[in-house]
Amino acid sequence: MDKLTKIGEVAAVPSTAVKTSKIGIGFEKLDRGVFDPSKAYDKVAAIGVKWIRLQSGWARTEKSKGVYDFAWLDDIVDNLCRRGLQPWLCLCYGNGLYDEEAAKVFGAVGCPPIKTDEQKQAWHNYVVAVTKRYQGRIGWYEVWNEPDGKWCWKHGVSGTEYGEFVKATAAAIKVGDPDAKVIGGSMCLTGLGWLNDVLQTGAGECMDALTYHSYSPDEVGGFERVRSLRAVCHAFNPRMEIIQGETGTQSRDDGAGALRGGAWTPLRQAKFLARHTMADLFDDVMFSSYFSCMDMIEALNGVVGDKSSYLDYGYFGVLGADFDENGVATGDYTPKPSYRALQTIAAIFREDVKLAEMPLQFSAGKGSPRLLRGDDSFKDLQYHGFRKSNGSAGLVYWRSTELLTTSYESTVSLEAVKLPEQVRLVDLVDGSIYTLPPAMIEDNGRGVRSFLHLPLRDYPLLLTFGDFI
Questions:
Q1: SS (H, E, C) 134-163
Q2: CA end-to-end span of the chain, whole Å?
Q3: Most buried of 72, 214, 218, 367 (most Cβ within 10 A)?
Q4: Residue 28 lies inside a defined structural domain of this protein
Q5: Which residues pair with 320 in a beta bridge?
């Protein structure tokens, strides 16, 4: 960026000032009390995301049969709503009051209440109580978490079994709140066989949306996956929305959980976040949720009474934390580079921004003085255009090199017509705004402008035309 002139930074827009957005973040695992939400509310709201994912915590709420204590969840929901955030709730997990196996598992993770009539009725009653209580505050309910993974459906994964569970849970949701929306799936694996088994039960008829999780260094593979998921879902229910419910990676190489062991750093995490979030917008999902707000223990395979079994620290957070002897996140909850990346994207891609085809094309350009060769080809890029109602436009582009092996810098050139005169370049990871020097812009006098040797990185940059920022 050294040939450009920095003129400012993208201003953060708090969630209270955001009316609509497709950008969200996770606030999960409070059913297991793994961090202090009171220290996170303001910092998360300052990111400017809108959607925020919670987990309902049946075992934490019903500790005596038929008696619900929602005080802990009320406090979380009310604090988030007060700050302009829109909670959506994953209904989970099991309850040791009704299941001996669930009583042995930390947080009763992965123990669905489907074995006995008593379990089924207790789950129905609980779901009715939840949705009735949060009517008007929560409108979307997700049925379980990652049921296609053995860690969250511990007795053995079955799409048919989960499909029947979705139908029963959807019926309970509607008893508590007839206007509530039902989300199914929460699927973490890529195969379509499990999903087909789910939808063959008729579950698709009561699902307003499908969520999928995306833990892969390669965001490009997600484009085909989303097309496939959307096509399968629409074969059963053409009205079903697609939601990216979890994606994320670590900020260090020694964390537990998905993508563990990779050569992750805080900067690579920020690049991952920017690439995957923009890819979700390219896919036109209903909304996209980054996992997660906080460094925290994974706590998916813990055994009650064996603390060592669930002190498995994950470093997925946009906020960094320390940990006490029980694995609870402590410290000041410090923003990482990924925090600023999400804040930048949330500020720009909100309200009336729409995907759009752009009147431009990448060109060979002249020899790039930065490369001592020609510019990169558009064939190696990920890019898409966006429009806003004020007439402005933006082009997001990056090169999808391997994040764990390569730090990529290059240049590209393009030609554009019929776009606003004012041009800016925005770094979507750190929020810097630049102007282009005159030498990088050529006008042929007939309405075509060429933009020469623009910076190209292994993370998204945004070229804006008019007042897009």
A1: CCCCCCEEEECCCCCCCCCCCCCCCHHHHH
A2: 19
A3: 214
A4: yes
A5: 334
Does the pLDDT value for residue 190 go beyond 80? no
- Which residue range is the domain that position 393 belongs to? 354-465
Indicate yes or no: pTM above 0.85.
yes
Residue 242: what are its φ and ψ, rounded to 5°? Answer: -115, 130
Separation of alpha carbons 32 and 299, rounded Å:
8
Is residue 170 a contact partner of residue 319, using CB atoms and an 8 Å limit? Answer: no
Give the count of beta carbons closer than 10 Å to the beta carbon of residue 312: 18
CB neighbour list of residue 275: distance below 8 Å, 6 or more residues apart: 219, 382, 398, 400, 403, 459, 460
For helices 159-176 and 193-200, give the axis angle rounded to 10 degrees.
50
Query: DSSP letter string over 78-126?
Result: HHHHHTT-EEEEEE----TTT-HHHHHBGGGTT--S-SSHHHHHHHHHH
Sequence-distant (≥ 6) Cβ neighbours of residue 355 within 8 angstroms? 281, 282, 284, 384, 385, 386
Q: For residue 162, say if its preceding peptide bond is cis, omega within 30 degrees of 0.
A: no
CATH code for position 305: 3.20.20.80
Rounded to whole angstroms, the Cα distance separating 49 from 20 reads 9
Is 2 within the bounds of a domain? no
134 and 216 housed in the same domain: yes
Q: What is the DSSP string of 325-370?
A: TT--EEEEEEEPHHHHHHHHHHHHSBTT-EEE--SEEEE--S-BTT
Rounded alpha-carbon distances, angstroms, from residue 273 to 41, 290, 387: 21, 7, 22
Angle between helix axes 117-133 and 159-176 (nearest 10 degrees) is 40
Within-domain flag for 3: no
Report the DSSP pairing between strands 441-443 and 448-457. antiparallel
351-407 pLDDT, tens per residue? 999 999 999 999 877 789 888 999 998 888 999 999 999 999 999 999 999 999 989
Structure tokens at 440: 């990088």
3-state secondary structure of 315: coil
Residue 3: its H or E element = none
CA dihedral 10, 16, 17, 18 (to 10 degrees): 80
Q: Rounded to 5 degrees, what angle do the CA atoms 242, 245, 250 make?
A: 140
Structure tokens at 192: 């379509």
Would you list the DSSP string of 10-62? Answer: PPP--GGG-S-BSEEEE---GGGT-B-GGGTHHHHHTTT--EEEEE--HHHH-
Longest dimension (CA), the chain: 78
